[in-house]
Amino acid sequence: MSNKKGLLALSPLFMLIVFIVMFTIYSVDKGKNEPNLSLSVAFMLSSIYAIIISGGLPITKRIDMFSRGAGAGNLMLMLWIYVLAGAFAASAKSMGAIDTTVNFTLHYLPSDMLLPGLFLAACFISVSIGTSVGTVVALVPIAAGIAHSTGFNTALMTAVIVGGAYFGDNLSFISDTTVVATQTQGCAMKDKFRVNFAIVAPAALIILIIYFFLGNEISAPTTVPPVEYVKMLPYLIVLITAIAGMNVMAVLTLGLFLCGIIGMATGDYNVYSWFSVMGDGVLGMGELVIIAMMAGGMLEIIRENGGIDYIIDKMTRKINSKRGAELSIATLVSFVNICTANNTVAILTVGSIAKKIGDKYGVDNRKAASILDTFSCCVQGLIPYGVQMLLAAGLAGVNPIQILSYLYYPMAIGVAALMSILLRYPKKFS
Length: 430
Description:
0% strand; mainly alpha
C-alpha cells in the first residue's frame, strides 16, 4: 500500500485525535468550561469524514461498512453492559446503596487513606476477577459518592479506580489480555507474570505513594450518617459474585434485582418508581452508547481501508536489533490499540507478527508477551473512547476528557515498560 493511501485510510483517526487534543486543552481553561463539549461531536465529524473518504464504493456500501462496525457482536455486548450498569447504578443510588457504602467507608477508613485504599481495593478486585470493566462497574459509583461527600475532585477519584482496574487487567491469570498474550507468544502464564510484575510493581508502588500524599488534601465530613448495612448488600453481592467468576452481565442483573427488592422492602421506592429510576439510569448512558457505536463504525472503515495493515507494514520494515524489535512490538500493539479501542483485539491482531519479530531477533517470548500486554493496557487506559473510560465517566457523571490528566497508573506502566526495553530490564528476560 502506498503512503498516500495508507495515510488517507488513517486520516479519520488523526482527525479524532486532533479533536480530543483540542477538547482537552480547552477544558483545562476553567473559564471555558463548556458542558456540551462532548466526544460525541468529535466522533460524529470523524465518522462522517471516514465515510466520505472511502472512495470507490457507493454511499450505501460505505454506510453498510460503517454499520457493520457499529453493530459488531463484541460491541453489542459492551452496550448491554452499559445499559445494565446504568440501570444498576441508578437503582443503587435511589435506594441508598451508594450513600450507605460511602458512609461505611468514611466511618472506618481515615480520610487520608481514602485514595490509597481505593487504589488497593481496585487492584485487588481487578486481579481477582481479571477484568477492568467489572472493577469499574463495582467501584466507580462508590468512588464518585466519596468524592461528592468529601468535596474532592470526582475526576481524580474516578481515575484512581480506572488505574487500579488496569493493574489486574495487566497481571491477572484470568485476564483475557494475559491469556491472548501468552498464547500468541507461546509462553506460560506464570513466566509472563514474573516478567510483568518486575516491570509494573515499582510503578504501582510509586503511584500508591503519590496517592498517600494526595489523600492528605481530603477532608472527611465532621458528621457521618449512620450506616444502614442492609443497603450495602447489593454491592457486597456484586463484588462476591464477580470475584467468584460470574459473568459481568449476570452480576449486574443480580445486583439490579437485589436493589429492587431491598428498595421496595425499605420503602425507598415502589415497583413503578423503580422502573422510572431504571429508565433514567439507562437514558443516562445514552451518549456513551452513541460514542461507542460511532467509534466501532469509524474504526471498521479504517480497518477495511487498510489502515491497520499499513501500520503493521510500516512498523516491521526497519528493525535491525533486539531492542529495536521490542520497541517495534510495543509501537505496533499501541497503534493498533488506538485504532481498535480494544486491548485484547490489538494483541490478537499483532500477536503472530510480534512472535515472528521476536523469534527473528532473539526476543524472549516471555518479555514479548509482557510488552504486548503492558503497552496495550497503557494505551487502553489512556484513550477517552475506550470502553472502560466511557463506562467510568458515565457512572461518575463526568466527561472522559476530564479524567485523562489524572490517569497516573496507566501513564506510569507505559513509562516503566518503555524503560524496561531501553535499559534491558529484567536482565534475565532481556
